[in-house]
Fold:
Amino acid sequence: MKILLAVDGSPYTKKMLAYLTTHELFTQGNEFTVFTAQPALPPRARAAVGKEIVDQYYSDEAEKVLAPVSKFLLRHGIDAKSSWKIGHAGESIAKFADSGKFDLLVMGSHGHGTLVNLVMGSVATQVLAHCRVPVLLVR
Structure:
C-alpha cells in the first residue's frame, strides 16, 4: 500500500507517528512518503529579499519539519521518501495525495494552525473536503 504521511511538527503529528509505528498493519510492506506544506511568504517580502534567499528559507523550514520525522521513522524500520510544497496546507496535501495516487493519507487531527475548530483542525477539514484519497485522522 502507498501511504502519505502529512506532517507539520505539531504534537498531533507526533501522536500520529506513534500510532503508525505501534500498529503492525501500517509497518509491514508499505511504501511511505512524508509530506509537509510551507505557507507562501507575502509577495513584498519575497521581492525584498530575492529568489535565492526565499528558496533557501522554504527549504530550511521544510527540513526542520521533515528531518525529525524521517529520523523517527528510520529508528522504527521505515525508510520513507519526503517531499514538500509551497502553498496552503489543506489544498497542498489534498492535491499531492491525489496526484501521487496514494492509497491512504494519514495525518494528525490538529496542527500548528492559529484557528482551532472544535472537533478537528481547519487543515484536516479542508483535506477531508477536497481529497479523493481515504484519510485516517489520528487524534
